[in-house]
Amino acid sequence: MGRPTLFVTGMQRSGTTLLEKLLTSHAEVSLLSQPFPFLFLQIKREFFRSLGHAPPSYPLGPLFLETRYSPEDLASFLAGHMVERTALEEAFAAMEGFSGQYTKPGAERLQEAFQAFRPGDLATALEQLYGLLAHAPEARWLGGKETLCEEFLPFLLDRGVRVIVILRDPRDVLASLNHGEGQCFAGTPKPTLFNIRNWRKSVAFALHLEPHPSFQWVRYEDLVSKTDATLERLARFLGIRPFEGEQFVEGIRGPRGEPWPGNSSHARYRGVSQASVGRFEDLLPAEVRTLVEITCYPELLRLGYPCPPLPSDLGPRIGGLREPYPMSREDLADHVLSPRTVGDELARLELLRGNGRHEVRRYFLFDDVHQGLRGALGR
Q1: Range 249-254 average pLDDT
Q2: pLDDT tens digit sequence for 141-176
Q3: Taking the C-alpha atoms of 243, 145, 190 and 338 in order, what is their torsion angle to the nearest 10 degrees?
Q4: Among 79, 225, 257, 363, which is least packed by CB within 10 angstroms?
Q5: Cα(189)–Cα(135) distance, rounded to whole angstroms?
Q6: What is the 3-state secondary structure (H, E, C) of 350-371?
Q7: Residue 320: which of 344, 338, 341, 293 has the closest Cα?
């Protein structure tokens, strides 16, 4: 890698855009906001085809109980996969009119970028594209943010990319996804268990990658309640001068100095606001809150989120729950609450007692994450 590259990701509605906007307010950082999400989808689909599998509807899935491939398989594929200009053109053409692409380069600039682009692996492609499409190409750090891209992080880190993941209380994530204007940002509701598993995937990668010197994770709650301290830590991580104090009091500015109106599902906030923290208490149906607090219990404890103790009757407590949101996504039926999926969740919790160690990767993705979560439970 030549130019310092920064990549920001996390679960949908976890504060990725807020973090990106705050970082971009620094003169030494220039980040694009979801400039080419379909490129990551395209690469993951090609990976599935290379294994002889038909790509699923959601290639960037939660990885829970994944049996078609291992992390090593993906790493090997990415090491040898070249991003070609034709693939870029196809990805950008497919994004025409897609609301999830926030940074939309003009046609002329995009064509110039295509002309200058040279084939390379994913990390090299990102370095080029972030430089060719940057709002402030003179900045020290160029990069972008995308959601649900945690699975690419080990490869990007190995190639010299700096990475930041943002995490948020999953109850507030679900409140943001399924209430207020959530569907404007994330589409029609997905099964609650699908969203829970995607959140746990994000946590698993954050905990697994935590020791890497080029990796950092932050909590949304700390970003909005301890903004100065959190940004000071990130400034040290990036080796840039400190952020200017009080610069967000009158609002957050975009890369060209324009006011950023925010993208909360619940209201429009001026500047950095804590108003969305804990909104789930008023919005989430009781059965959703129960499901989250049981299935995410070890992660909630490990990240310092308040959570009631696990009940002794786990099976009956979640076995009778039903999906409270209207579902229209038949391709996600494997994540709808059922005796089978509830059984999978109970089996996962049983692994925290030390039983069935050969299943650890299927349920926790990484051995060290399983051990760390057991430690959080005092086991």
Answers
A1: 74
A2: 999 999 999 999 999 999 999 999 999 999 999 999
A3: -90
A4: 257
A5: 33
A6: HHCCCCCHHHHHHHHCCHHHHH
A7: 338
pTM of the full structure: 0.96
- Summarised one tens digit per residue, pLDDT across range 195-205 is 999 999 999 99
**C-alpha–C-alpha distance, residues 41 and 201, integer Å:** 17
pLDDT band (50, 70, 90) for residue 331: confident
CA 86 to CA 182: how far, in whole Å? 34
Q: What is the CB-side half-sphere exposure of residue 342 using CA atoms within 13 A?
A: 15
Residue pair 253/259 in contact by the 8 Å Cβ criterion: yes
Best CA proximity match to 200, nearest among 325, 74, 61: 61
291: which 2 tokens?
């499901």
Q: pLDDT value at position 374?
A: 94
Angle between helices 107-116 and 122-133 (to 10 degrees): 140
DSSP run (H or E) holding 16: helix 16-24
Q: What is the pLDDT of residue 245?
A: 63
Q: What length does the chain have?
A: 379
Say whether 65 sits in a helix, a strand or coil: coil
Is there a contact between 66 and 198 (Cβ–Cβ < 8 Å)? no
Element (H, E) at 79: helix 71-80
